[in-house]
């Protein structure tokens, strides 16, 4: 049974490839579109909010592991009003997702919450990250966005299928 879903950010939750480029002030022309002071734009993918809301409703913990500058991630999540969905956000200026996920698990453990690898689902748009996740952290379930699934709501159905 999945108890924790960990999301990548860029090209997984939104269409931009690197929010570390974004400069304040931010402007939201629409609820799911963010524009920075230089005119760069990101758009949340369809059903991201709905998926996060459904995970919360099901009492699944939600985390983020992203290769971005931490202060940029924090500001973008806050501007899009997504920050409240995430129990833990680990944003680092290096690409090693297995280290970020280990940090996420450590933060949960510090608050008394522990997860076995089979209770964790990691969603990223780059399959290249999965090998080290499995090597160092065990058989965490991994989904490659846009290959294994094409809509965020499919995460909910994968969750429901893992419950049976």
From TrEMBL:
<dbReference type="InterPro" id="IPR023214">
    <property type="entry name" value="HAD_sf"/>
</dbReference>
<dbReference type="InterPro" id="IPR036412">
    <property type="entry name" value="HAD-like_sf"/>
</dbReference>
<protein>
    <submittedName>
        <fullName>Magnesium-dependent phosphatase-1</fullName>
    </submittedName>
</protein>
<dbReference type="Pfam" id="PF12689">
    <property type="entry name" value="Acid_PPase"/>
</dbReference>
<dbReference type="InterPro" id="IPR010033">
    <property type="entry name" value="HAD_SF_ppase_IIIC"/>
</dbReference>
<dbReference type="GO" id="GO:0003993">
    <property type="term" value="F:acid phosphatase activity"/>
</dbReference>
<dbReference type="InterPro" id="IPR010036">
    <property type="entry name" value="MDP_1_eu_arc"/>
</dbReference>
